[in-house]
Amino acid sequence: MKVTFVQPVYENLGIQYLSAVLKRSGHQTEMVYDPRLFNDMKVENAFLARYLQMDDWVLDRIVASHPDIVAFSIMTDIYGWSLRLARRLKKRLDIPMIWGGIHTTSVPEYVLANDCVDYIVVGEGEQAFLEFVESYSRGAVDCSIPNLGYKKNGRLIINPVRPPLENLDELPFPDKELWFEATRPMKRIRYTVMGSRGCPCKCTYCNASFIKTLYKDYPQTFLRYRSVDNLMSELTQAKQRWDIVDIFFNDELMTARRRWFEEFMTRYAEEIALPFYINVHPVNLDDKLISILENANCCTAVLGLQTIREETRKLVLHRKYSNQKFADIIDRFSRSRIFLIINIILNLPDQSLEEMKEIAIFLAEHPGVDFATPFLLRYYPKTEIVEIARQRGLLIDEEIEQLEKTEDYNPFTMVGKKEDLRVLKVRNLILLTPLLPANWILWLARNEHFKYIPNIDLFQLSCRLTAFSRRVFQQKIYVSETFTIPQYLRHILHYLRKKFVYCMLGRI
Ligand code: B12
Ligand code: SF4
């Protein structure tokens, strides 16, 4: 069987695992990639994005890949994009379309209800998808497959989920070719990898809390780690095969199992030692752990502060850590050469502008923070924070239903409440904290002068300037998200050329 995956913009490890599992059983796979020029969360311009969109090219490429099955992997942000393509594709190809991923898992009924969606897989997909493809290749889909959703006589049927895969070592290594092929023009190889699945925490804004309810019958198997040997062998093979610039550990919380992590870091430092990026968590971040990270060549660590009032953090986010704890961690990082990024969420339920300003003040007073990333809260379907907002009268049932159903996610979340420009200005103030002297930030925040900051998105500018200044003046290395400016330009030019050739000559 030939399966074609469709993916915009970002690397998708889920697809890479599904592809590897299928290939191991003798099937063929391909990934059709849409760069979504000027609508890729790096450079946003509505006019250029509309003018340069590549839907027709993507559809022609899917058709030309001669698939037996087309597979979509959906995060909430790309639901609308996926539907737009799938609806047109359904008119051209009479083959099964199957959907999976976190959005499908969160609101399976709404996703399956679409005419262009024939089947869905809820939760972890490797086994279910393989069984689906194998049964289809034998002539008819076996509708009893656990995790599978399908339609029968106009009814939607969603089978119960199986337990999450207990031994992650049973999985093949993810099929990286798919992604490196799509991003070859950038000439930059970042190797994204996960050593674990699951998270012991239950932050209300994160889907991890919902996934735990999905797997509530199997709590003991939810947080799983690969063996150190298995993870090392993937990294060793990858290092031999590709010219890797850096490693991106994308685990929700890789440090959670401390002994495992220390053993892994020791071997990593000896055998791999490439610069890496990792998510860390206040729960177990102490001096020793930061030294271990530093010795292993960690360049960038990301820590979620989210907000500054301990009560909001505890009651709204279920993150019960004191500001003193964060201050100590930041102080320790400031004495390392690791570039520390702090994640912030603005527009939390009942969060006042005053509280947002206090975040900027805290960051100014703790110069160990190299960069702060202020997100504006997005209510992702089925996350606990939606219920908190409902209880506080901030969302009504109709709005919750709409955010679960909507194909256009932006109005609720992307730029927060559009009318409140002050929030966007505080966001810019936070973005400026690593660049301006602390007393300027304090002056801007305390005297309301931040309202004079222009209302343009300073994210990319501030991020790049900070990375540059920390590198030059403090020898810190920011393992940049995915690209440098020349790499990004090469990427854009490559796809612009494809678009041009397609429009002029009809060649894909
Ligand atoms: C790695 C990661 C990223 C990476 C890669 C994203 C990607 N597309 O894979 C990067 C850094 C790019 C990223 C970016 C973002 N992310 Co992110 N990310 C994650 C993280 C930590 C792990 C995802 C992962 O690789 N999991 C491991 C793989 C193996 O699991 P999986 O992807 O779920 O796939 C399995 C199943 O879902 C299923 N499956 C998946 N697809 C399909 C398709 C078919 C056909 C089938 C049958 C099965 C199937 O089978 C797979 C194998 O078991 C998750 C948290 C989490 N635990 O999922 C958040 C998460 C997915 N991210 C999230 C968010 C919000 C974002 C951002 C919007 C953040 C931001 N503001 O920038 C961006 C937007 C990205 C975009 N628009 O595509 C949210 C999504 C919420 C939602 N409802 O959509 C999550 C759930 C975290 C959270 N806050 O709750 N992210
Ligand atoms: S620690 Fe991170 S992955 Fe875990 S629940 Fe909280 S936000 Fe989600």
Overall description:
- The protein is an alpha/beta fold and 508 residues long.
- It has 2 domains: 2-166, Response regulator (Rossmann fold, 3-Layer(aba) Sandwich), CATH 3.40.50.2300; 189-200 and 221-377 and 407-483, Transcription Regulator spoIIAA.
- The chain has helices spanning 13-24, 46-51, 55-64, 79-92, 102-106, 108-112, 126-137, 177-182, 207-214, 228-241, 258-271, 287-295, 310-315, 323-334, 353-365, 384-391, 397-405, 410-413, 421-432, 438-446, 459-474, 485-505; strands at 2-8, 28-34, 69-73, 97-100, 119-121, 148-152, 155-158, 189-193, 196-197, 224-225, 244-249, 276-280, 298-306, 339-346, 371-376.
- Helix 1 links the parallel strand 1 (2-8) and strand 2 (28-34).
- Helix 3 (55-64) packs across helix 4 (79-92), helix 11 runs parallel beside helix 12 and helix 15 (353-365) packs parallel to helix 19.
- The site of cobalamin has 35 residues, from helix 1, strand 3, strand 4, helix 5 and helix 7.
- Residues 199, 201-203, 206, 208, 252-253, 281 line the site of iron/sulfur cluster.
Which blocks of ≥5 consecutive residues have pLDDT under 50?
A: 411-417
Stated plainly, the CATH topology of the largest domain is called: Transcription Regulator spoIIAA
Identify the CATH class of the largest domain.
Alpha Beta
Overall SS class: alpha/beta
Biggest β-sheet: strands ordered side by side in the sheet: 2-1-3-4-5-6-7
What is the mean predicted local confidence, pLDDT? 90
List ligands, each type once. Answer: cobalamin, iron/sulfur cluster
What share of residues are in beta strands? Answer: 15-25%
Number of strands: 15
